Each structure stands twice: as structure tokens, then as C-alpha cells.
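Consider the subject:
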Amino acid sequence: MKVIRISLMVVILFSLIVSCSNITNTVAAPKVGLLLPHNIDDQGWNSKGYEGLLRVHSNLNIEVLYKEEISTREKAEVAIEEFIDAGVNLIFGHGQMYGPFFMELKDNYPHVHFITFNADVQGDNITSLHFEGYSMGFFAGMLASEMSETKKVGILAAFSWQPEVAGFIDGASYQSSDIEVKVEYVSSWVDTEKALQLYNEMVTEEVDVFYPAGDGYHVAIVEEVKKHGLYVIGFVGDHSDLGQSTVLTSTIQHVDYLYEKVVEQFLNGQLETGNMFYDFAEGVISLGEFSSEVPEQLQNKINDAINIYIETGKLPNES
């Protein structure tokens, strides 16, 4: 178990807040635990979770603990027990896979609040944080469609349930009626070998703009795209530093900001249970800097569409 300890012991006393059943009560001397399905060095989703934990530690002066490679229910149960023995009362499971685990285990620990991502949950001490991936995919699709010279773009998704897939297809089709969208599924977040195989097949099919919607293999795809002189759109993190002008932009999930926001709600007795949703309007999702390859007129068009979406909740195909 990795532990990050603050140098000065801070004891915060919280008053018991009595409210409706969907609000979590505050607790004294909070500690936050984080379970990660893979390691923190993936430059993607797991790194984002770790960055969020560090932000909580730094900005809120809270002791935090984390465990990597927790990929099964059995490992999760052991890790939860160790967290609780260490005094943890707020546990993040950094991924959809933890939703079912937490739903099965949460009633055994009513004094602990469990948080997962993109899973459907219900109960008095569990919350799921959902990123609105459809809109991310939509704006990525708009950009990819406009920047493609072959009129063939591709999304390399991890799984078919990802809302980014439908968003990418719809965004690309909205921008150009004659675009062809290739979709392939790696069936894993981290299977780089299969992702590269599918990528090379897409290259032979003349795809020239790629959206690797998988946090464990996206860096490898960016590197290959650079070699081939094609275009790519970053996923989850800002990947402009990986591919220079090759990376047209990135669809960024500001996981670190969301971690701090959620922990603050927990401390103040305002963290709701059930399913909570976050999008561009909440500042949790954004596009990164555009590559110099993207014409200014196109940049303005996409930025204007995002601003309208933030103000009205309507994407361009819904206006």
C-alpha cells in the first residue's frame, strides 16, 4: 500500500449534518483511498487518477493511500479491508469495473463512502461519476472529418459501450456527409499489440485521421501516426506534447479537478449518492490546444459549437 502523509497532523472536526437519505454525512479525520486497475505510469486514465489523488492531498491537506493493479473483485476486497484498517472512509475505484464490486461490498461498510466511474449504482453510501463521453467523441468526429484528405477516419475504441464511439460517428457524419468512419474494438484498455494491429489494418484502408479511445494504448498509436505522417486526436489527457502538429487536439477529461471537487463535497456533507454526470459545462471536459495544422476558421467553428453546447446543452446536430 502506498501512503502519502502530510507533514502536519490536521484534525478537522465536522458537525453531523442531518439531511435526506441521498446525502453522505461528514466524518472526522478523513482519509482517502484509491484503487487503480493498472499502474500510474500509463500517461492516461490511471495517471489521471493518481494526479487527482495528489491534488486532493496537496490542496485539501488530507492523507491519501493508493493501490495499483487491483483488477479483480478478490483483490479489491483485500485492498478495501487494508484501507479501512488504515482509517480510510472515502474510497475511489478508478474505473467502471469497480461499480459491481462496490455494489456487492458496500453494505458491509456503511461508514465508508464508495466512488466509482461510469457505472450504474444505487445505495446510501455509493456514488458513480459519469463523464459525458458522447460530446467528446462528437467534437473529435467533427474535427477528424474536416481534416481527412481521404474522407476516411477511424476510431480505435476499447469497448463498444463507450459513448465516444457513437459521438465520433455522429460528429464526423454531421461535418461531412460523404465521410467514411471505420470503427474497431480492442476489447481491452491496455492491449497495445492488438491496437497496433487494428491501426495498421486501418492504414491499409486509407484512414488518415485516428481517435484512439483507449487509455492504455493511445500513446503507442500516437507514435505510429507520427511515423506515417497522419493525424490523431488525443484521448483523456492532453497529448500535444507527444505528437506536435500530428495531434490535432485532445479530448481532455479533467479528472484531477473532479477528484478535488468530489472530496470537498464529501467533507462538507454534500456528496450525493447515485449517479452524477459531468460535461463541458461543468469544466470537467474540454478540448486541448489545436495543432497549427488545423485552420483557424475550423478552430473557431468547433469552439463556437462547444460554447453553444455549454450554454444550451445542444450539440450542432440538435440545433
